[in-house]
Amino acid sequence: MNNTALSEILLIEDNPADARLIEEYITERSWPNIDRTAPAIEQADRLDSAIEIFDEQIDIVLLDLGLPDSSGLETLDRMLEIGELVPVVVLTGLDDEQVGVEAVEHGAQDYLVKDDITPRLLQQTLRYASQREQQQQKLRQRNAELALLNQVVRHDIRNDVAVILGWGDSLKDHVDETGADHLDRMLEAGEHITSITETVGDFLAVLEDNSDPELHAITLSSVLTNELEKARSAHEHATIELTGDLPSGLEVAATELLSSVFRNLLNNAVAHNDKPDPEIVVHVEEHEATVSVEVADNGPGIPDSQKREVFGRGEMGLASSGSGIGLYLVDTLVDMYDGEVVLEDNEPDGSVFTVTLNKY
Questions:
Q1: Phi and psi of 205, rounded to 5°?
Q2: pTM score
Q3: 353 and 234 in one domain?
């Protein structure tokens, strides 16, 4: 399928009257207003028969989901598996319009209610479905290219930063007190660059998965303890403490990317802190069906007018004046986990980020 002009359509319909009417509509005189010539039609009344005659010449598929040898969304799944790059338009009855909506959510390009079909509607639907499929193919190819480029760039950055950090550590015994302060700042900046590459990788993993994530049991104590140790190691000048009890067997509904939520909250609390000695307090509160994790800091705080923007919410998105991609990722992940993240003022100074997750 190299352009939006359709040359061959595969019609899969077991009702002879419906099949004959659709064929007439496709070859009706108004078609040349959309394409120069009406496309050829291959017709099958069984899914297995359609699969046998399917070839690379097929530009689009008109599919009835209620066939003698297959029914429902399983029919669509099998067709999409065979014709991965060919758009499918589903045909439904008047009482099955919701099935058509579900089919589109499942991968079909569009659906048509048989009793509502007109020649013009049929022809336009096929044309637009073909156009959308081509656009999506181009987008998928571009995304794959960008993902590969991102992987290569992040790999190279991490390698170069590792070299910088290695040589920086070796200089610690060769600089005076003033130089040591500058060196520490340089090493901290290098660690921050490494952290950013990890965050970008996590964010792309979320973007690349268009389906709803499969939530499963994640042990909160393991994730939180690990991220606290990493934060303390990366920010030796900051005080990072855990208050309250952290039950060892407590599980929440999430994915492995939950660690990125707390890593970014902790890094953000230190990176945007204007105090010479940043203080970060993490508190865990267990409720009947949920668990809340507070990350409080003694930084400059965030004005009420910017509390939504800091997550990249609303129209501003990633271009917000907030704290960058890290908090946007936090908000995105917590929303995927059917949880909530809230930003409030700390007393007397700073901010409190509260993440609420569902128990598993």
A1: -60, -35
A2: 0.54
A3: yes
